[in-house]
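Suppose you are handed only two things: the residues of a chain and a line of SMILES describing 2,6-diaminopimelic acid. What would the bound structure be? This form records exactly that question and the answer produced for it, so the two can be stored side by side and reused later without any lookup.

QUESTION INPUTS
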Amino acid sequence: MSTRIAFLKGHGTENDFVIVPDPENALDLSPAAVAALCDRRAGIGGDGVLHVVRTAAHPEAAHLAGEAEWFMDYRNGDGSVAEMCGNGVRVFARYLQHAGHVTEGDLAIATRAGVKSVHLAKDGDVTVGMGSARLPEGEVTVSVGEHGWPARNVNMGNPHAVAFVADLADAGRLLDAPPVGPADAYPDGVNVEFVVDRGPRHVAMRVHERGSGETRSCGTGACAVAVAAARRDGADPAVTGTPATYTVDLPGGRLVITERPDGEIEMTGPAVIVAEGEIDAEWLENALR
Ligand SMILES: N[C@H](CCC[C@H](N)C(=O)O)C(=O)O
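ANSWER OUTPUT
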């Protein structure tokens, strides 16, 4: 019998992930291996992979070992690397609790976008300190077919273009990445969000994610949407001195985003471990050929 590699499956508002515990960073998780694991027909299936590594064991994160014991080595479903994954951090924290590495309460998780503070509440929700948003200068536009909209450029550690539309159906089927202009605005690609209002400080969104396609939810995207909506609504906390809280409905569930006057953004939502099992190492090896 060939070697087995442990995995778990989890999701946060139906943004789903293959979780691969690998404390000593011993596995060669190449882009091809990640894409094979995320393949929804020939593999396990997921929007991305959460590679669970002790911070001290990963060359990109070892400098953060004094601040956080675990590093979320996040990969998109196409095998590309992204700086941050908001839903992923919640599921990552839930995995650490499931595996007995942490109990409920507060913990820190290292990511490529720095160390994130996480609170595991008794009632099942997880709150993540997402840091603050950057709003690069310059107009960007998003197009779908003959439609075009001005969009807000928001960086949550990863890039987002947020377009407010009349109807979420205006985004079409989102089978491909919607063109974003100007062409040089996002040299490394971008996550694109389409937003409609549902009520005061209440929006709904769809997202086409860089490296994963349309997903049921995007945590960093929901934060980008809340930040863009607060600027549109004259509720920028840095100006008003008052925190701005938005309820964000996604196809896969609901997230609550609060931006404080100091710029810190908190995201609260569910995180679920669905299953665990073993990957056949020989299968994975063959999948790379
Ligand atoms: N596709 C994103 C990373 C995952 C973001 C999303 N799943 C989230 O929950 O924040 C990117 O390439 O920047």
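WHAT STANDS OUT: The chain has two domains: 4-130+271-287, 140-263. The first helix runs from residue 31 to 38.
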